[in-house]
Amino acid sequence: MPPGSSELPAAAGFDQRVYAAVGRIPRGRLATYGQIAELIGAYGCARQVGWALRRLPLPSNVPWQRVVNARGQISFTPSREGSDWIQAELLRAEGIPVDGQGRLPLGRYLWVPPLEDAVDG
Which has more pLDDT, 51 or 8? Predict the structure, then answer.
């Protein structure tokens, strides 16, 4: 790595691609972390999508709450510092039912972007 350079610009670029893709999810629809990774051409990077979304300051104009895991569930963990509960409430406000364990009907609310929306990595 050249002197004075850092990996931050690459991470910031990845994050911006994630935020742009997530910003296209319509209200009342859901996507998975893996789906967003594939949409931006970062196959196999679902976990990195999750970390990019965790770096968002709250509140945010990026509809981060619309991204859930592939099981159709919100992960409730102390490390999320309450954002898991915020996510559930935001989704309910959009009309997406979320049960007490964070499960939601992913099949019914899954967003399927047009093929031409795929971004080259």
Answer: 51
DSSP, residue by residue, 61-116: SS-GGGEE-TTSB----GGGTTHHHHHHHHHHHTT----TTSB--HHHHB----GG
- Residues 29, 92, 61, 19, Cα dihedral to 10°: -40
Cβ within 8 Å of residue 118, ≥6 positions away:
38, 39, 41
Q: Is the pTM of this model over 0.90?
A: no
Coil/strand/helix, residue 32? strand
Q: Which domains does the chain have, with CATH numbers?
A: 8-109 (1.10.10.10)
Q: Could you tell me which of 63, 70, 108, 106 has the C-alpha nearest to residue 87?
A: 63
Neighbours of 63 (CB within 10 A): 19
Nearest alpha carbon to residue 36 among 51, 19, 56, 12 = 19
